[in-house]
From TrEMBL:
<feature type="region of interest" description="Disordered">
    <location>
        <begin position="330"/>
        <end position="415"/>
    </location>
</feature>
<dbReference type="InterPro" id="IPR029039">
    <property type="entry name" value="Flavoprotein-like_sf"/>
</dbReference>
<dbReference type="Pfam" id="PF03358">
    <property type="entry name" value="FMN_red"/>
</dbReference>
<dbReference type="InterPro" id="IPR050712">
    <property type="entry name" value="NAD(P)H-dep_reductase"/>
</dbReference>
<protein>
    <submittedName>
        <fullName>FMN reductase</fullName>
    </submittedName>
</protein>
<dbReference type="Pfam" id="PF13596">
    <property type="entry name" value="PAS_10"/>
</dbReference>
<feature type="domain" description="NADPH-dependent FMN reductase-like">
    <location>
        <begin position="1"/>
        <end position="146"/>
    </location>
</feature>
<dbReference type="InterPro" id="IPR005025">
    <property type="entry name" value="FMN_Rdtase-like_dom"/>
</dbReference>
<feature type="compositionally biased region" description="Acidic residues">
    <location>
        <begin position="344"/>
        <end position="353"/>
    </location>
</feature>
Length: 415
């Protein structure tokens, strides 16, 4: 279980930070607690440029993948610190990243009443419509007299407070597990519906069951992501070992929400070039995760040319490049020799048969006057401006060298 814990102050020294560090160590057998410092965030303002919101975006990604959130708040003037309120504003303004996320509030202060007032305020904020967290009622952790409740090495030495903390955290973990079970059961029910496996889609070239469609996307050697026509992240293929790791929590987010702020202009430039018909494809060869990969973005259009969205294909090309570098295409295509002319005597002749039809590639019509070798060596006639005369598409125009090398669905730079 993964839990994200926010230190609710930007002070260099804080007993609330000490409390979270103690919880991280004390409850390590129950959960993996990651501590986040809100002093990394800029002060909230609707006018803050995207270029200054990178840390905000990173925090949102951490919350998406966390099973639960802990807010640790001190008490300043009977309320939460301004820095914590600013952080919550970032997490609730034009985003639903906190929606239905299991949340817990803890707090430490120097006074006898602990941080009771600030925790009440924090709870009111977290159950507001803009935050809409799943806050466990009555699960309070109130630690006062901080300087005497912790040892110099950061241990919570007050036995009553320690017992209260252990009880409350155990309840929080159980609370998270309830939601996880509900989500798993819902997923299992959707998979077990008989219509999923029995329904099929008719295509002009054949029909596929929904189960076959799903497995095709999981099997093909590249991954696919889709931004729909309204600029929302709509779908990704469930391919194992993806180059770009996706999370269902990002589905339905706008381009601005699911991309690092610095990359949003580049991403929108690609999408807008597709939407207004300037381009149909953008290609980027990149090094990713230590190997060579190819990313291609395509404008998804209907039969009438109307824009449906942007689709991204990503895959490693190491296997293909290794074949080439090891001489897999060493046969000279200009000799005129058919690669199947010895098929009758070759014990591996069955390799030249189309597995789906049984037809041999070399079984051309003897009356066909077309020279097979010309089909191999011929290249499309290029206009003076470099465009392909057969398609009108410019090869150079498919790669915008001025754009940042960004993932169109996440905006993450691969460099």
């Amino acid at each position: 279980m993964k839990i994200l814990a926010l230190v609710g102050t930007n002070a260099k020294f804080s007993y609330n930070r000490i409390l979270l560090k103690y919880m991280k160590k004390h409850f390590r057998q129950m959960a993996d607690i990651e501590i986040y410092e809100i002093n990394q965030l800029p002060p909230f303002s609707v006018d803050t440029p995207l270029s200054e919101q990178t840390e905000v975006w990173k925090l949102k990604q951490k919350i998406k993948t966390a099973d639960g959130i802990i807010f640790s708040t001190p008490e300043y003037d009977h309320g939460i610190p301004a820095a914590l309120k600013s952080a919550v504003e970032w997490l609730s303004y034009k985003t639903n990243v906190l929606s239905h996320k299991p949340a817990m509030v803890v707090g430490v202060s120097y006074g006898r009443q602990a941080s009771a007032r600030s925790q009440v305020q924090m709870r009111q904020i977290l159950i507001s419509p803009d935050c809409d967290t799943n806050l466990l009622p009555g699960n309070e952790v109130l630690i006062g007299n901080a300087s005497h409740s912790f040892s110099k090495d950061g241990r919570l030495i007050n036995p009553e407070m320690r017992d209260s903390l252990e009880e409350s955290f155990t309840h929080f973990v159980e609370y998270i597990q309830i939601f996880e079970k509900v989500n798993e059961e819902g997923l299992e029910m959707s998979v077990k519906q008989p219509t999923i496996s029995e329904a099929y889609i008719n295509f002009p070239t054949g029909r596929l069951t929904l189960k076959e469609v799903q497995q095709i996307f999981s099997t093909i050697p590249f991954e696919i992501d889709l931004i729909d026509s309204t600029d929302h992240f709509a779908w990704y293929s469930d391919k194992p070992n993806r180059e770009h790791v996706r999370n269902v929590a990002s589905l339905g987010e706008t381009v601005q929400e699911c991309h690092p702020p610095m990359a949003v202009p580049t991403v929108m430039k690609i999408i807008n070039s597709f939407r207004n018909g300037e381009k149909d494809v953008v290609t980027r060869p990149l090094w990713m995760n230590g190997h060579r990969s190819l990313i291609q973005y395509y404008a998804l259009r209907d039969i009438n040319g109307h824009y449906l969205g942007t689709i991204e294909f990503t895959g490693s090309v190491e296997y293909i490049l290794n074949l080439f570098e090891n001489g897999a295409w060493s046969t000279d295509g200009n000799t005129g020799a058919s690669k199947h002319e010895d098929a009758g005597n070759d014990e591996n002749a069955e390799d030249s048969v189309d597995a789906s039809t049984g037809a041999s590639e070399s079984s051309d019509d003897s009356n066909d006057s077309t020279d097979n070798t010309s089909a191999v060596t011929a290249t499309p006639v290029e206009e003076a401006d470099g465009s392909d005369a057969t398609t009108g598409a410019s090869d150079a125009g498919s790669v915008d060298a001025n754009d940042e090398e960004a993932d169109a669905t996440t905006g993450a730079s691969e460099n």
